[in-house]
Task: structure prediction
Amino acid sequence: MQISEEDILGRIASDDQGAFEQIFRLYYKDLSRYCLKYVRDEHVAEELVQEVFINIWDRRYSLKINTSVKAYLFTAVRNRSFNYIKLQIPKEQRKVDVDGMVDLSGSLSENREEELEFEELQVYVQNAIDSLPPKCQLIFNLSRNAGMSYKEIAEELDLSVKTVENQVGLALKKLRVQLHPIWDKVFVMIVLNFL
Result:
């Protein structure tokens, strides 16, 4: 039986494990695939998504969600992915420093360098997104990260489709200006569907 999001959240706050499991089953696979495009490791992606759900269950009595459950979950997974990447960069850099010295040619592994550069680029882009005005940022994230259409966003936030289009356009314009020094690399990420 399908229940509304408000009912699901209310039931979760009342210790209803069945409602919690319903949300888990509904979103887990999509969230894991979404997380995978950031962390590039299936086990890590699944672990991070599970951590998001554990956090929701732990905070069930005080949890307030101002968007849809779907938008909240995708944003939480994205944030947890970027936190993971931020923590991994120094570890990976140390590993490259040690492993790279063993390379007879004296150069670091090209693949590892590309992965580090990609991860750093993702963090840089996310910081730019985080600097957008709150409404603009929310709409941009719902569009790009939660995979919602302009119409779905407009209905969710009680706005016109035109307002949503304008906010996404404004976000892209601001990001283009802020990311100008690295825009070519960001454009490649967009083309490869990593943003």
